[in-house]
């Protein structure tokens, strides 16, 4: 997921080619780039698509690359829109796992991720924003939060992503009042 700002385009240009070369997990995966650009011309979007199609995911690869370009529903809402639309439009149907990364998130060592993905009892891999709960401070919540920049989950394990609530101040998903099927959160 990307809103194609200068920072994320920099990562696409300068970091992703090497990451893809060194990551069998990402090389072997089908890719859906869900872009929600703000104030970006069609020519700029075409240039980004060409750059990604040529340098990051060349046409001779064995897996698929698909682009979805949507209007940006807002900084925070856009953070989970790709996940909501993925279920709504069946983009995830037929897949064992979904890996959701922002363009500026890099996987430097996939060994642990692959180990977790091969464990039949693991339904999701999340980056937790907080290991503790705090009251009355900015960026604190009484619930669990998931960093939306990096999430991995089995699509069959989560059928209702619209129940996720986006934190008002951050790009994290708070779900303290909504039970999720991921019981092994702390394991």
From TrEMBL:
It comes from the Eukaryota. This is Hexosyltransferase.
């Amino acid at each position: 997921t990307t809103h194609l700002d200068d920072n994320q385009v920099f990562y696409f240009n300068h970091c992703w080619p090497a990451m893809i070369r060194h990551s069998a997990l990402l090389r072997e995966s089908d890719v859906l780039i869900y872009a929600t650009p703000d104030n970006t011309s069609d020519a700029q979007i075409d240039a980004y698509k060409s750059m990604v199609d040529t340098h990051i995911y060349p046409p001779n690869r064995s897996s698929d690359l698909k682009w979805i370009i949507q209007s940006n529903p807002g900084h925070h809402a856009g953070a989970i829109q790709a996940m909501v639309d993925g279920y709504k439009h069946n983009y995830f149907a037929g897949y064992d796992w979904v890996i959701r990364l922002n363009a500026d998130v890099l996987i430097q060592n996939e060994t642990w991720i692959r180990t977790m993905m091969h464990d039949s009892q693991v339904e999701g891999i999340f980056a937790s924003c907080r290991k503790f709960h705090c009251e009355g401070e900015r960026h604190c919540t009484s619930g669990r939060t998931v960093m939306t920049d990096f999430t991995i989950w089995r699509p069959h394990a989560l059928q209702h992503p619209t129940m996720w609530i986006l934190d008002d101040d951050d790009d994290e998903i708070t779900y303290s009042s909504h039970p999720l099927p991921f019981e092994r959160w702390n394991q």
